[in-house]
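Supplementary Methods. Inverse-folding protocol.

Structures were first reduced to a discrete structure-token string of length 346. This string, shown here, constituted the complete conditioning input.
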């Protein structure tokens, strides 16, 4: 019987594992859970399955493919990953997993601890992650496992989300995106913006502002070619661009000079790929009180109009201008709050 840390709740053992609800993990220190498992199992290894079902029923609740396990005195995260690749050698699997997961795991203070093939079904890979427990609860360890599994599924199926797209780019696996559609959160460009000219500087500022003004942010990638197809545009090839010690600074300077206000937590990085690099600009969702983001200058019929201010945002695969009525409504609302002495909370 497992007595949960911080209370008198107990969970039964069915001969193979315990079952906890994901809510049980909130605020639970990994060291306390590890100690409770050690006491319950007298030091023997055990798996703790996790369910998201509304009601916890040890007979009926469906366990998630991400679990926690106690093994060799450690609290680990385990993933059950099902793939269509049946004929991959175990050594190659470890190499593949390391390539795909390494950047994600590094950012989440975790490492790949091991991988084993299911002895009865080689399409099932049992993966173990070791997570630093410092400053995190058991729920965060579980979320690290969820993110790793989502990234593997995206790699395997070629259908990434925005978050897994960012991880695929950072891990050097941008080729997984080939054939995918550009969407409301992804914009690709084959060549560098010409940051020696006002045209290029305004263009990159507008590209970032489109996502800064959008509801959920987005990703701009330089070094990926798109192809127009009926109904939109798809990613057709990876074409890395040259990068030197000044490149990222030039992108940063152009955005700082031509975009106001500066977007919160804008991330610009170069990812090495096939002898070149991809420039990845990640624009997180921005606070509403910062919008609209304004670009100093506009491009009208191919010409730079430096005295203009342009405001654009992303809708689907297209960019649309923010209208004068929308800007006026935003300014009027702000003035009304000031008049009443109300200011947005930080």
């Amino acid at each position: 019987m497992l007595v949960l840390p911080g209370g008198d709740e107990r969970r039964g053992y069915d001969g193979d594992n315990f079952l906890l609800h994901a809510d049980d993990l909130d605020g639970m220190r990994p060291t306390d859970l590890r100690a409770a498992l050690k006491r319950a199992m007298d030091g023997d290894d055990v798996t703790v399955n996790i369910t998201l079902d509304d009601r916890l029923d040890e007979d009926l609740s469906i366990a998630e493919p991400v679990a926690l396990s106690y093994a060799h005195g450690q609290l680990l995260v385990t993933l059950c990953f099902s793939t269509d690749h049946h004929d991959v050698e175990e050594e190659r699997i470890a190499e593949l997993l390391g390539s795909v997961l390494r950047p994600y795991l590094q950012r989440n203070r975790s490492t790949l601890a091991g991988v084993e093939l299911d002895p009865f079904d080689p399409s099932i890979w049992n993966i173990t992650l070791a997570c630093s427990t410092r400053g995190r609860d058991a729920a965060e360890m579980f979320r690290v496992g969820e993110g790793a599994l989502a990234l593997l599924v995206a790699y395997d199926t070629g259908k990434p989300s925005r978050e897994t797209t960012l991880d695929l780019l950072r891990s050097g696996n941008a080729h997984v995106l080939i054939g995918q559609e550009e969407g409301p959160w992804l914009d690709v460009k084959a060549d560098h913006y010409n940051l020696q000219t006002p045209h290029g500087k305004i263009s990159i500022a507008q590209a970032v502002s489109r996502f800064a003004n959008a509801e959920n942010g987005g990703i701009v990638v330089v070094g990926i070619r798109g192809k127009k197809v009926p109904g939109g545009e798809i990613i057709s090839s990876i074409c890395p661009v040259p990068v030197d010690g000044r490149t990222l600074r030039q992108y940063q300077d152009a955005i700082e000079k031509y975009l106001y206000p500066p977007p919160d937590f804008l991330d610009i990085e170069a990812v090495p790929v096939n002898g070149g690099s991809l420039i990845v600009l990640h624009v997180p969702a921005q606070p509403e009180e910062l919008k609209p983001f304004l670009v100093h200058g506009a491009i009208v019929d191919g010409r730079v109009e430096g005295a203009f201010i342009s405001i654009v945002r992303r809708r689907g695969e297209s960019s649309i201008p923010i209208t004068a009525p929308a800007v006026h409504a935003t300014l009027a609302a702000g003035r009304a709050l000031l008049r009443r002495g109300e200011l947005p909370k930080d």
